[in-house]
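Progress note, project year one: complex with MRU.
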Amino acid sequence: MPELRGLHWDGSALHFIEQTLLPEQLEHVKTQDWRVLVDAIKRLAIRGAPAIGVAGAFASLLAWREVDKDRSKWLDILDVIEDARPTAVNLSYAVKLLRDASQSISDDALDELLTAKAEALAIRDEEMCEEMAAHGLELIPEDASALTHCNTGALVTYGIGTALGVLRRGHDTGKVKRVYACEARPLGQGSRLTIWELDQLGIPGTLLSDSAAGRLMQEGLVDFVILGADRIASNGDTANKVGTFNLAVLAKRFGIPFYVAAPSTTFDPSTASGDDIVVEMRAADEVRNCRDRLVTIPHAEVYNPAFDITPGELVTAFVSEAGVHRPPYSFA
Ligand code: MRU
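Model obtained:
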């Protein structure tokens, strides 16, 4: 089986897996058009914090290649790219990286510099996944069963993933025996993507509805929880897929370690606490429907935050490429 890669840059175009079609169809899209990437990020065809950062960097580069050295036009496009999704800091981090790099360089040299920056970001993302996994292994007991949420593997990074990368290496080394995955309604990042990725990797996986997590923990079936993040404030408050907060509260209730794995590009020292994180609200139809089939009355009013905020005090430890971080948290 070829290595699963959610994103691949070939020097002139970005290839991505159209995640909305999974698990039924594995379709690769190749594009040199920044608009296609912005649309893919908005539709969650490319999703997950590190992946939208990497895609945002290549979108910024591709936009420069299109504007015929018109810097003001390019800077306007960068704002559009940055606004594609608000919560994951990786996207604004990546766009800012390229914007800042452009400031003291001639038009003629800019393509080369932006290419180097975007490629370095992607390669570093891949390396950070392995480094995170190596640090995360320290936290995993023998014969462990883990609970995870959303989808944090190869689809959403340039490497093996964040939390799922830790679990993958945990399974390779024989420590992780089973991964429980919440379905992550409404869009099913757990049921459609994580369970599929686990299956591709040969890791035993069990799917549960989001509301079954309490019962699972009560039965003593979870040794630790590990999941990813979209933005980590300097006090450790963590934005991640909606439902994460519920799991953290439950884990506290049952004394189960609750870990967050994320690269440094997801830590946001300029955000003091979760109160300052913008939580993306998404369309009502995502909840009214399940895979395009109406599951309620057509005019049901809907509350659909894509993320929630888990207070840092509920996080047992963070795992980044730099190591394991324990409380008290101060990522400023
Ligand atoms: O709305 P999504 O699917 O982009 O949400 C993604 C998540 O919440 C992930 O858990 C997070 O980005 C970490 S991905 C390594």
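The mean pLDDT is 97.
DSSP finds ten helices and 16 strands in the chain.
No further modelling is planned for this target in the current period.
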